[in-house]
Request: fold
Amino acid sequence: MTTKRQIKDLVQPLLERNADLVLVGHQRVWLRDVGSVGRMIRIDRTSRAHCCIVDWRIPIFFMPEAYSWECLGRCHDRLFRSESSGGGQGWYWSDPTMAADFVTRVEADVMPLLRPLDTVRKRLDFVRTRPQFQGYLHPDWHLIAAIAAGDLDAARTIWAKMGEFYRPGRIMDEPYRQLEYDRLCLIDEPLMADDREGLAALLHRWEAEAIVGSPLEPHWVAERFPLEDG
Reply:
C-alpha cells in the first residue's frame, strides 16, 4: 500500500520548484489560492502496494453534491508516464526514474493546463466545454454551473425539465443523497425570481460548508461568481 511518507517524499521536489503548490492531507497537491473551483493533483493508492496512480482534478465546492473538501469533482484525467520511461499510467515505487518523471510530467502536462485557469469563469468554461467529460456532467451539474456563470436563462431552461422532482420534505430512498436533494429544492424560488443575490448566497453557503473547518481552509479564498457581476 502506498504510504503517506512515500507520497510526501515524491511531491517535495515538485513543491520546491513551484511555490503555488501545496500538499494538503497526504495525497492531494493543490494550486493556490484554492478558490470556489479548485485545481488539484492526486496521488492515489491502488490495490497493489508497489504502484500508485496520478491524476488531476477540478473539484467544484459549491455544487450540491460537494459534501466536504475531499470532493473529487467530475472533471479529471490520468497522468501518464513519459514514453522514455515506458509510458502507461502505472507509477511504480520500485522504478528509480519515477520521482524525476513525476515532476517532469506534472510540469509539462498538468501545470500548463491548470495554471491558466485562474478565475471561476475560466474553470467553469473549461469543464463545460470539454466533450470527454459530458457523460459525467448531469443536468443538476449544468444547472448550478449555469447559475454560477450568471446564465440564468439557461439555468431556467434546465430547471423546467427537472424542477418538479424537487419538492421540500421529500425523503430520499438513499440517505446519502438527502443533502444534495434538499439543497436543490432551495433553487426554485430565487431562480424563478431572478434573485442573483439569493442564488449567490446559496452557492457561497454550500462552498463554506464543504471547506470551513477542513485542512484546506487555510489555503482557501472565497471568490465572486460571474453571477454576482451581472
Summary: Residues 120-229 form one domain. The longest helix spans residues 98-114. The chain has a mean pLDDT of 93.
